[in-house]
Amino acid sequence: MTGATSNEIGLNAVIVAVTDGAPRVLTVEREAMTAPALPAPLDKWADRHFALPFGPFEPGAHRTLDLGVRSWVEEQTGLNLGYLEQLYTFADRHRDPRELVGGPRIVSIGYLALVREAQPHGEGPAEWINGYSFFPWEDWRDGKPAMIDTIIHPQLDRWINLASNAHKRARRAERVSIAFGSEDAGWDFERVLERYELLYEAGLVTESVRDHAIGALQNHADKSNNAPIPLDDDRLTALATTGRPLELDHRRILATALGRLRGKLKYRPVVFELLPDRFTLLQLQQVVEALSGVGLHKQNFRRLVINNKLVEPTEDRVTQSRGRPAKLFRFRRDVLRERPTPGVGIPARRVTG
Amino acid sequence: MTGATSNEIGLNAVIVAVTDGAPRVLTVEREAMTAPALPAPLDKWADRHFALPFGPFEPGAHRTLDLGVRSWVEEQTGLNLGYLEQLYTFADRHRDPRELVGGPRIVSIGYLALVREAQPHGEGPAEWINGYSFFPWEDWRDGKPAMIDTIIHPQLDRWINLASNAHKRARRAERVSIAFGSEDAGWDFERVLERYELLYEAGLVTESVRDHAIGALQNHADKSNNAPIPLDDDRLTALATTGRPLELDHRRILATALGRLRGKLKYRPVVFELLPDRFTLLQLQQVVEALSGVGLHKQNFRRLVINNKLVEPTEDRVTQSRGRPAKLFRFRRDVLRERPTPGVGIPARRVTG
DNA sequence: TCAAAAGTGTTATCCTTACACCCATGT
DNA sequence: ACATGGGTGTAAGGATAACACTTTTGA
Predict the structure, then answer these.
(1) B3 contacts on A by Cβ (under 8 Å)
(2) Å from the A318 CA to the C7 C1'
(3) Same domain, A178 and A216
């Protein structure tokens, strides 16, 4: 039994903005907490280590968790958070490997914050990073990413076959087909977390190799007699393409956030938290596309948001645009009172890939 | 500053079953943590004090939070939980009033569990209680509860007018109309938490009076110069009809659970966790009705679940029924693989009230 | 004049809702 | 026979998705 017997509460914030058509996530750089030597194609991540912003929960100072997050985010980055939502509380054993050397169990309460633009931060080594550099398989705006068929699926198939009996193979196959789609199903863009967890379990993300190396593998389901996953060239190539790692289980927290945000788009008007007061319909569409990771059908998108009375036109028009000047719209706050679930709707373009 | 400077982690479980057409919640009875003298119509709650089951999080013994919940629930009640989902983490100052006398800040991680039937518990003073006795205004199966128009709305209107300026009154009015519906909006049965919080703030539930009496009012927004809410006869009558209180903020946790469960019905096949392996469509409908709190249109409900391929018929039929024997159906697990959001759909009957 | 974007119109199709009706069994 | 619940048919209305097309600007 390696379990810690005390615990500590931390707060983690996933702070999201959308700029230049990409979802950006605020990260902080810091010295690595745990840096085992990693095999060659993964050493590109060896120099700099990024984490989600985090801070302690101080019961004496913080009346609520929300206020706690707001307060240290402002201190650390100068950002004044608008929309803020509790995500999930993470507390798995060994999520912080310092437990292995006597450290306490760290319970982290994850938060999702949306800010209007990626202003530069106040002080401290914070940096806005494109969200899809952590999840390259999630961005379908230019069609299905090739890596899904060339790399992920073959590796997952191999992982399925490494299970120790037919029943376990079937379970793995079912999970893969739910998470990554199949003939009859298709891609469900909300299942970000399920996909990340599957890749972690299948040993296809850097964190998985790292945690394994230091004896702190998160998912213990595989203590069973499943065959270990050989670290051969194919798997190494795969590992080099599955995106940028984060410290501890922060990429899992980020996956939780992206999945939640994608789900929420459909039934709550959260996009507007990321847009200026007045915006064009194209801007609105591009923000939705950036977050949902799918390309949208322009005409139908416009009609949906207008028919659903989510926005109202203003008198003004954009001038310095490339084509015909667009009307500026604003969010119609009254929908909140009128409709139970005022989301944006995701009329996806047919995927050509 | 009355803030505690240390904290402790607890786990709370909302354990739900549906029996005899009512959603049941497992509660434990215990000596009151805080029992101020309450005005007359409220003393019916003075004898016995109920709370949600809770237990400590033990980092040494519990590999994950989920496993922690499962383990002490089994110990305390003998129940073997099936479906289990993390709800929310509660940590507001004074949520446990023992903080006022030097106790630590208690951070509670709330869980929702669904069990197949309300079997009697193992040991300990646990009891299954009808969920709507905590939220009488949430049960619309026999039409709109009269109390909404006769009691809640008048009292909320009064509360709106107690705000100190026009802007605050407008904010309150908007919140009321979103939570409780209005001409253009209607009742959104998922907003259970918003409604409970509004009633708490407006001083219309017992907990609000209790917490005020001991100086631990949860929502501090009203430290402002809003007029206090007079505790006159009308308000006392209202308080006597707004349902059974729970210890601490457990009714808030319960409201969170019910809201989440109602939302989830629509896009995840969670109902089946509450039903036996094989069931009739009427049973299925009644469970959905019990949870969502609305009556459903029989024919359309049947077609929806069948067309959506959520269930498949078995060979067997029920025999001891009143009318024609019904086919027994079972959950079609394959939908999980086939459709992204396999929920039940809520084709409500027109409300006649 | 052309590219780039804004914006309109029109279908086919599917899903939902509502209503009407018949069927099988126990009392 | 009739009450109770099981079960089917159908048609109207609305929302969505797919398509084709026009308009207004800057370069």
Answers:
(1) 59-63
(2) 15
(3) yes
CA quadruple B254, B259, B265, B270: dihedral, nearest 10: -20
- For residue B293 the two structure tokens come to 């709190």
β-strands B105-114, A7-19 pairing: unpaired
Q: Give the total number of structural domains in chain B.
A: 3
Q: Are residues A169 and A191 in the same domain?
A: yes
The strand ranges marked E within chain B are: 7-19, 22-29, 50-51, 54-56, 83-90, 105-114, 126-130, 278-279, 311-317, 327-331
Q: Do residue A129 and residue A152 come from a single domain?
A: no
Q: Are residues B103 and B149 in the same domain?
A: no
Confidence of residue A39 (pLDDT cuts 50, 70, 90): confident
Is the pLDDT at B265 greater than 80? The verdict is yes
According to DSSP, the residues that pair with B126 across neighbouring strands are: B28
- The CATH code of the domain that includes A329 is 1.10.10.10
Report the distance from CA of residue A318 to the C1' of nucleotide D26 in Å, as an integer: 13
Shared domain for A27 and A126, answered yes or no, is yes
Which residues on A lie below 8 Å from B341 (Cβ)? 188
Q: What whole-number distance in Å separates Cα of residue A83 and Cα of residue A264?
A: 13
pLDDT of residue A137: 98
Contact B89 A91 (CB under 8 A): no
- The answer to whether the beta carbon of residue B295 comes closer than 7 angstroms to any atom of strand C is no
pLDDT in tens, B26-73: 999 887 766 777 887 777 888 889 999 999 999 999 999 999 999 999
Tell me which of A2, A6, A9, A193 to substitute to probe the interface with B (most B C-beta atoms closer than 10 Å): A9
Nucleotides of chain C touched by protein CB (<7 A): 3-9, 16-21, 23-26
Q: Report chain B residues whose CB lies below 8 A from the CB of A92.
A: 63-65
Domain's final residue, options A135, A167, A185:
A135
Residues A98 and A16 in one domain: yes
Assess whether B130 and B14 both reside in one domain.
yes
Position A1 in a domain: no
Nearest-CA residue to the C1' of C3? A323
A352 inside 8 A of chain B by CB = no
Q: How far is the CA of A83 from the C1' of C3 (A)?
A: 39
Mean pLDDT for B295-304 is 91
SS3 content of chain A, % helix, strand, coil (to 5): 40, 20, 40
B174 with A107: Cβ contact below 8 A = no
A310: domain range? 270-338
User: Looking at the structure, do residues B116 and B23 belong to the same domain, yes or no?
Assistant: yes
Interface membership of A294 toward B (CB under 8 Å): no
pTM of the model: 0.94
C-alpha A164/C-alpha B284 separation (Å) is: 37
